[in-house]
Amino acid sequence: MGTDTSELNAARAALVEALVRTGDEDRDAFRTVYRLTSAKLFGICLRICADRQGAEDVLHDVYLTIWNRAGAYQPGRASPISWLATIARNRAIDWRRRQARTRAVGVEDAEAVPDGAPAQDDALLAVEAHARLHHCLEGIESRQRAAIRSAFFGGLTYAELAVQAAVPLGTMKSWVRRGLLALRGCLDGDA
């Protein structure tokens, strides 16, 4: 187990270094960030977009955003993969909302493609989620925890969450906001 942990720590350190160097407009570092994360970020985009072409387009936007915002990444505030996954998730949700506005057709018929993420990225996410985030999630109120999990890991919007929980939209937004504030307080306390 010690070797796995040290390998994960080394992978995380390499990704942090590549992100920091990308912030200095180092193209080789940016290629390293892409190589280390593209499969995982594509999986997130595909899961939320439920459309392969859309997920590819979103992934392109994700890496443009990473290139432009890497200088703002603060290693002490978030793990590198969490920071990158948040960008991917937000871009994918934005894409999905735009699609919903431009067409009335659902995404039920989308082609299902498995997430081809390397085992190293999966293990890194699992360690991050279960070691720190999971602990903090367990500490917040159950309705807030369920809403946050559905939103962040399932890609559901506030409106979808409200329908699922049979509560008004404002109530759902309040649950998520309060839960995120509590989660942030816990995560900041662990830093």
TrEMBL record:
Pfam families: Sigma70_r2, Sigma70_r4_2. Residues 131-183 form the RNA polymerase sigma factor 70 region 4 type domain. GO terms for biological process: DNA-templated transcription initiation. It comes from the Bacteria. Keywords: Sigma factor, Transcription, Transcription regulation. GO terms for molecular function: DNA binding; sigma factor activity. InterPro entries: RNA_pol_sigma-70-like (IPR039425), RNA_pol_sigma-70_dom (IPR014284), RNA_pol_sigma70_r2 (IPR007627), RNA_pol_sigma70_r4_t2 (IPR013249), RNA_pol_sigma_r2 (IPR013325), RNA_pol_sigma_r3/r4-like (IPR013324), WH-like_DNA-bd_sf (IPR036388). Belongs to the sigma-70 factor family. ECF subfamily. This is Sigma-70 family RNA polymerase sigma factor. It comes from Sphingomonas liriopis.
